[in-house]
C-alpha cells in the first residue's frame, strides 16, 4: 500500500517509518511512504501557507492553493489513492473502517495545523473526513499516524502471527479478554487455572466469557450494535445471571 502524508512536519512520521511493526513492514515493502510538504507550493518566498480567517477570530487557516497543489502532486503518484482529512468533524475511526481502508491500493492523508484548512479543499475534492475521537490535538499528524498504524497492522504479512490481528480487541466487535504470562504468581495474584489446564475448548470458552463480561460492563454500546452467535447469547445470559447473584 502506498501512503502519502501532506504535512508541514514530515519528520514526525519517523515514529511510524523507523520503529516497531510499522517500521519492519516498511522495510519489507508491505507499504511505501512519502511526505509532501505544502510549504514547497507556497506562492511567496517566505513559504507562508496560512492566512487570517475571513470573518475574523483567533488563529490562522491553511490556504487552499498550496494544499491543492500538494494534493495534485500526491495524485500524480497515486491517481487511485483515497484522500483522507483528519479532523474532529469526521466520522469516528473504528476497526471496521481501518479494515476497509487496508483494502485500498493507496491513501493520501491530509494533516491540518492551526485552526484548520480552507473549507473549499473539502468541497472541491472527494474527501473522507475521519476523527480519532472527541478531543482536540494540535495537528493532524498524530491522528494520521494512528490511522496509518491501525491500517498497516492489518496489511497481509505485517504481523508475525496472522492470528494476532484476528484475535485483537474489536476484530470481533468485542473488547479483548485478560492476558497473562509468567510468573504464575505476582503480588499474591495467580494466573487463572483454566489457562494452564491445556483444555483448549475450555480456554476458548473462558476467553469469550471474559470478553463478553468486559464488553457488557465497560462498553455496552458495542453489544447493542452487534449480532450475537448462539454461544455468545448463552454465555451472556450466564453472565447476566451471575451479575444478579454477585454484582460484578
Ligand atoms: N485535529 N481527529 C485540528 C484533531 C483531530 C481529531 C486535527 C485538530 C486537525 C486542524 N484530527 N486540526 N480529533 O483534533 O482527527
UniProtKB/TrEMBL annotation:
It catalyses: guanosine(37) in tRNA + S-adenosyl-L-methionine = N(1)-methylguanosine(37) in tRNA + S-adenosyl-L-homocysteine + H(+). S-adenosyl-L-methionine binds at residues 112, 132-137. One of its GO terms (cellular component) is cytosol. It holds the Pfam family tRNA_m1G_MT. GO terms for molecular function: tRNA (guanine(37)-N1)-methyltransferase activity. Keywords: Cytoplasm, Methyltransferase, S-adenosyl-L-methionine, Transferase, tRNA processing. Gene3D superfamilies: 3.40.1280.10, tRNA(m1g37)methyltransferase, domain 2. GO terms for biological process: tRNA N1-guanine methylation. The keyword Methyltransferase applies. Its EC number is 2.1.1.228. The keyword tRNA processing applies. It comes from the Bacteria. It is an enzyme of class 2 (transferase). Residues 1-224 form the tRNA methyltransferase TRMD/TRM10-type domain. It is found in: Cytoplasm. PANTHER family: TRNA (GUANINE-N(1)-)-METHYLTRANSFERASE. Belongs to the RNA methyltransferase TrmD family. Specifically methylates guanosine-37 in various tRNAs. Homodimer. This is tRNA (guanine-N(1)-)-methyltransferase. It comes from Snodgrassella communis. The gene is trmD.
Amino acid at each position: 500500500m502506498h501512503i502519502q502524508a501532506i504535512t508541514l512536519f514530515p519528520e514526525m512520521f519517523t515514529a511510524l517509518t523507523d520503529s516497531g511493526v510499522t517500521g519492519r513492514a516498511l522495510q519489507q515493502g508491505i507499504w511505501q511512504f512519502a511526505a509532501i510538504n505544502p510549504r514547497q507550493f507556497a506562492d511567496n518566498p517566505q513559504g507562508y501557507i496560512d492566512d487570517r480567517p475571513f470573518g475574523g477570530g483567533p488563529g490562522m487557516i491553511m490556504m487552499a492553493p498550496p494544499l491543492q497543489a500538494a494534493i495534485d502532486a500526491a495524485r500524480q503518484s497515486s491517481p487511485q489513492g483515497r484522500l483522507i482529512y483528519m479532523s474532529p468533524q469526521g466520522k469516528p475511526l473504528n476497526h471496521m473502517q481501518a479494515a476497509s481502508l487496508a483494502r485500498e491500493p493507496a491513501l493520501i492523508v491530509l494533516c491540518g495545523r492551526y485552526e484548520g484548512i480552507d473549507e473549499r479543499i473539502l468541497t472541491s475534492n472527494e474527501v473522507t473526513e475521519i476523527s480519532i475521537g472527541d478531543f482536540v490535538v494540535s495537528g493532524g499528524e498524530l491522528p494520521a499516524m494512528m490511522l496509518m498504524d491501525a491500517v498497516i497492522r492489518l496489511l497481509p504479512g505485517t504481523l508475525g502471527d496472522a492470528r494476532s490481528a484476528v484475535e485483537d480487541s474489536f476484530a470481533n466487535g468485542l473488547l479483548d479478554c485478560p492476558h497473562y504470562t509468567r510468573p504464575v504468581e505476582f503480588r499474591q495474584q495467580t494466573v487463572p487455572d483454566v489457562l494452564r489446564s491445556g483444555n483448549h475448548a475450555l480456554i476458548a470458552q473462558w476467553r469469550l466469557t471474559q470478553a463478553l463480561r468486559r464488553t457488557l460492563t465497560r462498553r455496552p454500546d458495542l453489544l447493542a450494535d452487534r449480532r450475537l452467535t448462539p454461544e455468545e447469547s448463552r454465555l451472556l445470559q450466564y453472565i447476566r445471571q451471575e451479575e444478579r447473584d454477585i454484582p460484578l
